[in-house]
Amino acid sequence: MSRPDHYGLAQRLTRRHFFERFSDGICGTALATLLSRDVYGASIDSSDGLPEGHRRMYDLKPRAPHFPPKAKAVIHLFMNGGPSQMDLFDPKPVLDKHNGEAYFDKVAADLTGPEQAGGLLRSPFKFAQHGKSGMWISDLMPRLAEQADRLCVVRSMFTVHPNHEPALFVIHSGRTLPGRPSLGSWTIFGLGSENQNLPAYVVLDDPLGLPINGTQNWQAGFLPPVYQGTRIRSVGSPILNLRPEYEQPSEFVEVSHDLLSRLDNIHKRNHPGQMELDARISSYELAARLQLSASDALDVMKEDDATRALYGVGEEPTDSYGRRCLMARRLVERGVRFVQLYINSQIWDTHTNLEDGMRAASARTDKPVAALLQDLDRRGLLKDTLVVWGGEFGRMPIAQLGGNPRESGRDHNPRGFSLWMAGGGVKPGMTYGATDDLGYEAVENKVSVTDWHATILHLLGLDYERLVFDQNGLKEKLTSVFEARVVKEILA
Amino acid sequence: MSLNAETRDECSVWRRFATMAACAAGFVLFGAPGDPAKNPPAKPSTFEADIVPILKNRTCLGCHGPGLKMKELNLSTYQTALQGSESGPVIVPGKPDESRLLRMVKEGLMPPGGKIHLSDEELGTIRGWIEGGAKSASEPHAEAVISKVTQDDVIPLMLLRCTVCHGLRRQEAGLDLRSKDSMLKGGKSGPAMVLGKPEESLLVKRVRSGEMPPKKRLIQVGVKPMAPVEIDKIARWIELGAPIEAEPPDLAATAADPLVSQKDRQFWSFQTPKAAEPAAVKHADRVRNPIDAFLLSKLEQKGLSFSPEADKLTLMRRAYLDLTGLPPQPSEIQSYLADKSADAYEKLIDRLLASPHYGERWGRYWLDAAGYADSEGGKLDADHPRPYAWRYRDYVIQSFNDDKPYDRFLVEQIAGDELVDYEHAPVVTKQMMDNLVATAFLRMGPDSTSEREVNFSDDRLDVVADEIDVFSSTVLGLTMKCAHCHSHKYDPLPQRDYYRLAAVFKGAYDEHDWLQPLYIKETTVIRTKTQGRLLPYVTPGKTPYELAEEERNREDFNGEIDRQLVSLKSSWEEKTAPLKKKVLGERFSKLPKSLQDDLRAVAETPAEGRTEVQKYLAEKFAATLKVSSSDLKGADPAFAKDEEKFESQTKLLAAKKIPDPKIQALWDRGEPSPTYILRRGSPSSFGPLVEPGIPSALVAGLQPYQIKEPWPGAQKTGRRLALANWLVQPNHPLTSRVMVNRIWARHFGEGIVKSLGNFGHTGAAPSNQELLDWLSVEFVKQKWSMKAMHRLMMTSAAYRQGSAVTPALEKIDPDNVLVSRMPLRRMDAEVLNDTMLQVAGRLDTRMFGPPDPVLVRDDGLVTPIESETGWRRSVYVNQRRSNLPTILDNFDFPQLSPACLARTQSNVAPQALHLLNNATVYELADDFARRLEKEAGSDARRQIEQAYWIALSRAAGSEETRVASEDLLKLKQAAVKAKSADADHKALTAFCHTLLNSAAFLYID
């Protein structure tokens, strides 16, 4: 299945939809006024001459980007807890040499548990080069290593806070505080969605529990609520209130529906020119479509056995995450703009038991993630789907609680961490930036979270400076007041 | 060595030298400009000879001179020029490309306006001067000037990094580092500094060695270690002999700030509103009060008049939902219809204003604007509960019901703690307690500082920033947010204004002397870790003896509840034991036989009675032995419902406890630390010192901001009281305008100024300034009575218009800017919820008190828990930020971080899904049907008619009746066919459910 051309279609679609909806009522002049009002979103630059720059109506109709995009959809594989860079993508032989030496004073101010600081800790995992690109990946992720030539690893990420909650807010919405729109919200605020039967921004969280900060990770903040992420559960009823939670004779459904639509039409007839009522009726129509299409889109049983096996569906420990990765593919295939995947608790938060913890976390995700890349590629979707993998910060080169990697772990480290991107517009097989010899601090080609956000928007055809929302006189942006840079070097 | 700015190579060589020299902190290497005989024309450029003429000639000093210091930049003297602006240094000696000054003029950004450009020659001169080390004729070295350090560079560093242990509250080792004198005095180990000898000074030694601040304690006390440049600065200060320089007085604290020009002050919203005479209009018959005349005159200019008046019942439903958030009961409708007097409508408005439901509805708007929540929110996932915030909610509701004058309402909320000496009062009065409860207005923003990881200076400043944000947008109608980091780009709000306000709040919110909010463990058991920012609530009029008795009674009562909670829990455990056993049994059966019996024995033995071997097994097989609630749900589908019921019972029971007598308050602590401007808002980058004050653009005819001792001998700064008094002057240009505009917006859908919290340049211009100003003056004239404003607005002809949109209106007034009709509106989240409850007869109208608990289902659905008496109104439901009731969340209840002045209105599928599928909504439909059966009997037609009266406050139209009758019949037939028990009732429920889903129900004409 291939997706429609979002960029070109956006404008055509909107106009046609518009006429369809309004052909039954309003006379010519009124129509002209309405058209000029950007009712069904033709452009992103939102001011409309309105004082606070708000659009007149907020919806999910497709909107044209600022410039032709490289990526049309994003799958964000969020790795809760802060995966350890020096155990995955950023080998540090110097740590082997100085294993056990004291380093506390240099990092004290960044530690969340200074009482437990130990000496430098070497990685217990073996690194090797993979693919034509010779990318370094540790033996924790053998399947992903086979996909090395599709990855663009950024080793020089840094963030601003060593605690999970603020760091999660930063990675999702640009600042350490709640109340700001997430990356996904900004994306669909800018671009809308190609599929009006499914939510534009889908969150696939782990049935075992919400990540830190809960639903605030996909909040719309000060953007209208229509732009918040919709949580879809991978077991049971996928959306809140998707199915009736009460018993009634099945014959009732049709009659009730008929009654509602007849009553609403009478009301609409008595209220000519009230657009709000049209929008409401269409929201009921979408609700009805959602009840049908959500189940279909999310039903991994519609895939063949081989595909399910590829993702590790039906086997442990990959079944749960494999399902979500496969659902993510089915969703972007259907035109969903932004899909975000979570794992329960903080599997990468390896304060203790570094070795076992990292192995367990990798075992749950390596196969599904590698499968997602492979599957997207063979369906021709990878070229315009941006897959991003990463956590909220990295980890310390020193040990926490002693120095035996079977017992001790690593504390949080905001000064340097690795993440990768693949597909839609990034250079494949690239390793960008560097941390210092110990992996403590990003030193070469540093990339802030703000830069990373600006780069993702850029790949989606959005200019981070122009994607704004007026909030109490401030032109708010995803990058907030921070200086941002599109990391051109990693663009394909 | 020669210096020739014209030859690049030599120049760069010099630059390298200069850099090296600067690194070595040498100051006398380049004293002589070289041998004049060798290099006759090469006279090094200086500030006085080469730069000052350009600055004068190009009028730079007009803005960046000693008078204005725009952006905190003063270029008039060498020294101040090198100090830089609010964004940091503008001249970096030797580095022209890093010098902001050169960049701004080169790129044509300065002088502003684009008319004046510096010539290439001038640019060359500036470049050359900076390249040449940015020298002065009088001062030999820029470095010397830049490295000039005074107490204002050092004291803020002490406050930031040291005084938490060596300052106001604690003097560890007898040391106080808050002033030069106290540093010289030192502590147990001797003086902290030896003037002129930094490396011999204990302060420098201890900090340089990394001993101080102690690394292992950093996180406990919320301090970051000192950066090397900061230590250098302290060392340099000591080296210079710890010079103290008197700051020039902060002008705006007493008079108008020169940064804000006369023209700035001319902006419309900074002028005192004047009431104009309403213009004469053609359709004088439509004028019921001056509001109408102001609106009509504009409408008539466009050839329009008001829309026809809405019919009596439409108007009734509108007024009810508008003022009380609940529809009228059928009996009220009948008596209103029977009232044929000319002023029946006016009497209706008076009745509604007297209803206690009015405060619940309009108080809620104020709670939005204050950012009310029952949890701390902020950066922590835990989202700790705020167990005493509800007192503030009650205060607000009561104040609205009492029609407390708005000026008094503001004063109490901004400075209630500085009004009366509550600490030494012989008798505690209700007013005293209200004053303190009211200060929670400034405690409503998210506050994460209850935990140490997020209790650093910047986290604390975030709390202050949110409060300033709430205060300035909600009360003042200005957005001060930008000025946190730099001077406002569009409004005349220099950065100093922001920090003056921060200084006003500093008596209570001092980031260097911080009180954490209360730390609460979990909802059922309230445990206090610290005293927190709380004051005791003393029941007014009670004697100490009675108070002690009150406490005993509370303990007894709560102790009884605790006992009931324990017994509830144990009976629940007993009930679930067999299921648990079954789950374990299935698990054990997969293990080797030899283990099974041992593990079973472990499972059946309570932890304290286990043998050593059993303890070992319990640890080894912890995962096997642990049975989670999701395991139980997997084993028995009915378990989930049972568990929900148990949780609901537990929470309802716990909610019955009598709350501790505490107030979430804000109070002045009398000894604030000094306030420095923070460059770029960064907590460690200090600019000049400021005094408390108000935005300097707002001076028009006002009494200046003036601090007075609140009462003789008060241990309070009186800063916030001065702010409150300044604010409520009758001729204040913003206070009354901002509030009447907000009342207007709630009645008419949009504000006269659309941007409710922004009356500045970036806000919207008023659509009808004469009207706004007339209303503002009237508001003050009516003694700031909000009820008077409602009465005025709601009895206008404008408010009584119908909502029909005609093609002409759509063409001429598409946005309804002229108020040519009333807008069709969707019910607010709470109105929808509360109305459904009332329609179903399940609304519990009890007011006030601790919030009602909610149930959070595994899939995230949040539902208020019903008590024996029904559900109370939404305003009384727990407003925990992370767990808002789903129905409110779906219908645009705002995320209050920090506050909300205008709710957005979305129209999305989850709303439809909620009303269609949610179990609670269906349950209410079921109750609605029962109510119909009771009130209208079994006749379908009468049921339909009564349903319309109850839900829509009107008779069903003939077509509606026909359609409804047809489908109700079909539903009944379907129910019979499905052999459904109670077929008629099931069918009627489906009809009621549909009605609750209909547009006619959800929208207000």
Can you offer a commentary on this structure?
The complex is a heterodimer of chains A (492) and B (1005). Chain A has 492 residues and is of the alpha/beta class. Helix content of chain A is 32%, strand content 15%. Chain A has helices at 6-22, 28-35, 93-97, 104-107, 142-146, 164-173, 183-191, 251-270, 275-298, 305-310, 319-333, 354-378, 449-459; strands spanning 73-78, 117-120, 127-130, 135-138, 151-158, 201-204, 230-231, 338-341, 385-390, 394-395, 398-400, 412-413, 417-423, 430-432, 434-435, 442-444, 447-448, 469-471, 474-476. Mean pLDDT of chain B is 86; it is low at 1-41 and 520-530. Chain B is globular and about 105 Å long. In chain B, α2 (47-57) packs antiparallel against α6, α17 (344-354) packs antiparallel against α33 (786-794) and α38 (919-936) crosses α41. Chain B has 42 helices and ten strands. Classes of the chains: A alpha/beta (492), B mainly alpha (1005). At the A-B interface, α2, α6, β7, α8 and α9 of A face α34, α37, α38, α40 and α41 of B.
List keywords for this structure.
heterodimer, A: 492 residues, alpha/beta, two-stranded antiparallel sheet, 13 helices, globular, disordered N terminus, B: 1005 residues, mainly alpha, 10 strands
Quick take:
The complex is a heterodimer of chains A (492) and B (1005). Chain A has 492 residues and is α/β, with parallel strands linked by helices.
Please outline the helices and strands.
The complex is a heterodimer of chains A (492) and B (1005).
Chain A: H1 6-22, H2 28-35, E1 73-78, H3 93-97, H4 104-107, E2 117-120, E3 127-130, E4 135-138, H5 142-146, E5 151-158, H6 164-173, H7 183-191, E6 201-204, E7 230-231, H8 251-270, H9 275-298, H10 305-310, H11 319-333, E8 338-341, H12 354-378, E9 385-390, E10 394-395, E11 398-400, E12 412-413, E13 417-423, E14 430-432, E15 434-435, E16 442-444, E17 447-448, H13 449-459, E18 469-471, E19 474-476
Parallel strand pairs in A: 1-8, 1-9, 5-14, 5-17, 6-7, 6-8
Antiparallel strand pairs in A: 2-11, 3-4, 5-13, 9-13, 10-12, 15-16, 18-19
Helix pairs in contact in A: 11-12
Chain B: H1 8-23, H2 47-57, H3 60-63, H4 78-83, H5 100-106, H6 120-131, H7 142-146, H8 151-161, H9 180-185, H10 202-208, H11 218-221, H12 228-239, H13 262-265, H14 290-301, H15 312-323, H16 330-338, H17 344-354, H18 356-370, H19 390-401, H20 406-415, H21 430-438, H22 457-476, H23 495-505, E1 534-536, H24 544-588, H25 593-604, H26 612-620, H27 622-625, H28 629-635, H29 639-655, E2 662-664, E3 675-678, E4 686-690, H30 719-727, H31 735-748, H32 769-781, H33 786-794, H34 807-812, E5 825-826, H35 829-839, E6 843-844, E7 854-856, E8 862-864, E9 871-872, H36 886-890, H37 909-917, H38 919-936, H39 940-952, H40 958-977, H41 983-997, H42 999-1002, E10 1003-1004
Parallel strand pairs in B: 6-9
Antiparallel strand pairs in B: 1-2, 3-4, 5-10, 7-8
